[in-house]
From TrEMBL:
(6S)-5,6,7,8-tetrahydrofolate binds at L162, G166, H167, L168, E289. This is Serine hydroxymethyltransferase. It comes from Tessaracoccus defluvii. GO terms for molecular function: glycine hydroxymethyltransferase activity; methyltransferase activity; pyridoxal phosphate binding. GO terms for biological process: glycine biosynthetic process from serine; methylation; tetrahydrofolate interconversion. The lineage of its organism: Bacteria, Bacillati, Actinomycetota, Actinomycetes, Propionibacteriales.
Amino acid sequence: MSDLESISSAYRTLLGVIEQVEPRIAQATRQELTDQRASLKLIASENYASLPVLATMGTWLSDKYAEGTVGHRFYAGCQNVDTVEAVAAEHARELFGAEYAYVQPHSGIDANLTAYWAILAHKVETPALAEFGAKGVAELSEADWETLRHRFGEQRLLGMSLDAGGHLTHGFRPNVSGKMFHQRSYGTDPNTELLDYDALAAQAREFRPLVIVAGYSAYPRRVNFAKMREIADEVGAVLMVDMAHFAGLVAGKVFTGDEDPVPFADVVTTTTHKSLRGPRGGMILATGEYAPSVDRGCPLVLGGPLSHVMAAKAVALAEARTAEFRTYAQNVADNAKALAEGLLRRDARLVTGGTDNHIVLLDVRNFGLTGRQAESALLESGIVTNRNSVPNDPNGAWYTTGIRLGTPALTSRGFTTSDMDEVAGMIVDVLRSTKPTTTSTGAPSKAKYTLPEQAREASLTAADTLLAAHPLYPGLDLS
Ligand SMILES: *Cc1c(COP(=O)(O)O)cnc(C)c1O
């Protein structure tokens, strides 16, 4: 039996076992593979992890409680979890050239929350403890503790605005980050739609934040982290970089020099499941100065680590250290460029006029559509994207004016630059054929539209052909 035949047979057996307990879950799991195989996935935050990464998550490592850190646990019997966590952290440090890596956060949001509180511990709590002559918070008098709690609440954070491409954890009010910090956001230049470092520096001088957060979810360009460091230094701020979206491009050495955040940031947070192609999870890298604070992620923010997921992070990070991964990361960027050029050649408008990372932000105004209409029309034509705000979006955050496209997932399936050009053609054909319906007052609807059957069918057929040429998990057969 080949490896893939035995893996297929193992998955069939496992799904059979699950089926005996709850058939609906076995069926949904099978169907998810079928659906993922059948969709042209351009969701910029999604990817396909390798079978070794997926397999690593499905084990009894999940059963162990291991609060604490390697060699210093609040539970007995953590020797194997120690190995898992130490190996994952070692790969992370060596891959990214970081002084310290913390692989316990369960998600990107957890990583950010842990990082914020670690920064507050280092910059606010530690000096306060010295001032009050206490070794730890438990020793503080009620009055001193109250003073310290107020100091936490007085701190300022400067992050990228949501509609310029920032993330909700960068100080957006509905998120806890916007409630725990006084927050202001920086945007992009209204003409170029690019980050305006001079405007950001002026804002930082005026606002004097404790933390400047760089990083994005929907900005189609690289960031100059050397400049970010200069700005942070000038105002005495901590520089935190959230590379959740582009960690794979850092790992794969597509972003080097000033575009690599690790040498410049005090703290770097990331997810592990986006362009990095690992299990769903989070991670923090830090300088030695911040390491002791981040290391207290449990009990600061987190409870027990997900040992099975830390194991899968170790496997994914080992994969990310290979030459194949570097090729993959370069292909992600090349494919994004090909997609952008394909769209531009067909007269589409892109935010910032193009891309130099893995994201393309398509402004659908000149098709007469909202982001919501474009997203739905593309979805029924076999192209999975998500609607997204553009800077100063006239349609707001629900209907939006943009479509965010990303290449990590299709690149994992082996899509090439010429495939991406074909995808660009399909997108433009569908959007040109889509017309908003008019409401009873004669105004165009923001949600409803019509799409001729012929255009939809043509796109679905083209998508099938492309997907068949680049199978997902080739050889994995559950039937
Ligand atoms: C996706 C993302 C996150 C959140 O990650 P989750 O794992 O969904 O919690 C945080 N920051 C940025 C910039 C992201 O893109």
